[in-house]
Amino acid sequence: MMYSDVKGGKSEMAKAKSKTRVYLGFGAIYQRMTKEGNVRWYLDYWDAKGKRVQKVAANAITREEATLALRNAVILEHHKELGIKTDPQRVSFSDFSKIYLDNYAKVNKRSWKDDQYRLNANMIPYFSGLDLLDITSLKVEQFKASRLESGVSRSTVNRELTILKKMFNLAVDWDYAFVNPIAKVKLFSEKDTMKERILASEEEAKLLLECPAYLKPIIVIALHTGMRRGEILNLEWNQVDWGRRIILVKHTKNGKDRAIPMNELVFQTLLSLKNKDGQTQFVFPNPMTGKPYTEVKKSFGLACKAVGISGLRFHDLRHSFATRLLEAGVDLVTVRDLLGHFSVKVTQRYTHSGSVQKLNAVELLSAKTDLEAKESLHSCYTN
Question: Which of 83, 110, 144, 149 has its CA 20 to 30 A from that of 321?
């Protein structure tokens, strides 16, 4: 396919002079002023039959959006030339969200309900009335800004952007779009938003005294196994191996089962629950439904507030588990395996060394220094 005809060493396209004309190799884009005084972007390219096309780039506001429109138009002409019937199907963002949920998220993601909630609560209302092909990187950047202005965290926005990026990748694969306009949209850095809240030993004692009876063993398991909230609340008795004294964690976030040894406190806590009501399927059943508790956020928050503990989330109990192990000298690889992470880098996000631990670390060097070397160094400072 020819995108420019060259005569006398000059492109035919070069005849149309414009200060804003941008040549992109497969065509050009340029701006013109309308009678109303508005600036509009135009496309300049050749169709499948070699005919020059100059038309307005509908909905394009920025150079980037005009470039995307030109690319889509040229790809469409290229497909026509090759006889490929891959014209993108016009579909609204709302309708494609349902296609994404039904054909990908529900099939491949255990957390598909989270995707469904985020789409219905935030993304579908924002992109309401737009076709998938009308969504550009500029509109996504505007979405990012609006979400931050609403008061949500950068990590929350990143989770939503990740869903959008996956949706558009699938849209390209499924012939609903030529390119992913979100491919170059950057996620926010989350380094400054990482919370480092560890439960102190004295806080733990106060918290356990204040907790309702059903919540206390849940907190003990969290602090001594590092299990996630969902893993604990959905724990079944058939996952507890009394002989080997391990808990087999199934249906994990990364899809891999893992075995966690039970220390004496965990063993005795679970044993007391088993002796009390071992006929149920779940270790922590809601007495009203017989099903697992779906949430303990309210009761956990009330207990923390009652004893003056602020800024502590249930997930911080998992952080505390990891940090306490490292403080006790456990190596990072073992902590990674207990937490169920694929990479040590992920585990490092959950662990934080305090000043005492850092001091102890450098003191190890002093302890290993030869006595004669220490005396020699001392004489250097005293003479």
Answer: 110
